[in-house]
Amino acid sequence: STFVAGLEKLKKGEIEPYGVPLAGELPIDFKDIRIVGSYDVDRAKIGKKLSEVVSQYWCDVNSLSDDPVVSTGVHLGSVKNLPIEAEGLEDSMTLKEAIERLVDEWSKLDPDVIVNTCTTEAVKPFGNKEELLKAIENNDKGRVTAPQVYAYAGTLYAKKRGGAAFVNVIPTYIANDPAFVELAKGNNSCGFGDDGATGGTPFTADVLSHLAQRNRYVKDVAQFNIGGNMDFFALTDEGKNKSKEFTKSSIVKDILGYDAPHYIKPTGYLEPLGDKKFIAIHIEYTSFNGATDELMISGRINDSPALGGLLVDLVRLGKIALNRKEYGTVYPVNA
């Protein structure tokens, strides 16, 4: 809802594009972004106009340039223990049938870019496409997760359409799973992911890059986030938290070239914090003549707006990658 509300205000010139990293640097204008479909598994939202859902959170958005009806998605237990009444396609059909339904609906909507913003969930990568196809054929609803269903449906849709992009902004392995990388390459799909980092992780990445450029040796890194929104509530599940931990922790070796001791993961849920999460970072490093320096950073960051600004760019980058036929995982973008 934050992405939709902010995009609408951008189109109308009501706000400046602060928080959109590549605001004026891409050849695609904000006004060129159209929302042709929306999916949810919250029974209270399904069947309503998108504007009706958005206005529940943003009272200053009364109408939308594009206002599709919210369709039924797939959950496969991903919202278990969350305070919603879940409804998914898989409740009344097999995985194969649900995927066929999604591909059929998307073919009518004709999107260039499909964005997955599901709640973070515990996931086991498939590693090869044969295992994925086997699980779907066997209707193994305990093995396949909702994002994996969307991603696979996205590759089938891309093949049918002649090309599409799939953007995954949660830490389920899609862009990092060889099964989906292979499927994307073979079906004219551009893959972006995994995890739209919005809190402490971008700060940590920037600081580590700074230290690497100045030939400091990083001795250890500690970073944690505490928030009070539904995503942080979901992360109280150990399996879901583990998925998030991997995508965050992988930046250390990627940037430094060595795996400095680190503790980087979402740390807890505190409801009063709401969507404005608390972040804290501590980095210890060695400088000239053996001197040891330390950096300590703390802050409060609005989670949903931070991701919303990234989505404005990711949708446009997805279209650019599609135009260039960069099929498979687009590794420079957050993979």
TrEMBL record:
Gene3D superfamilies documented for this protein: Dihydrodipicolinate Reductase, domain 2 (3.30.360.10), NAD(P)-binding Rossmann-like Domain (3.40.50.720)
InterPro entries per record: MIPS, Myo-inos-1-P_Synthase, Myo-inos-1-P_Synthase_GAPDH, NAD(P)-bd_dom_sf
Any GO BP annotation: phospholipid biosynthetic process
Ranges for domain Myo-inositol-1-phosphate synthase GAPDH-like: 199-304
Domain of life per record: Bacteria
GO molecular function, one term: inositol-3-phosphate synthase activity
Family of the protein in this entry: Belongs to the myo-inositol 1-phosphate synthase family.
Protein name, as recorded: Myo-inositol 1P synthase
Species of provenance: Thermotoga neapolitana
Gene assigned in the entry: ino1
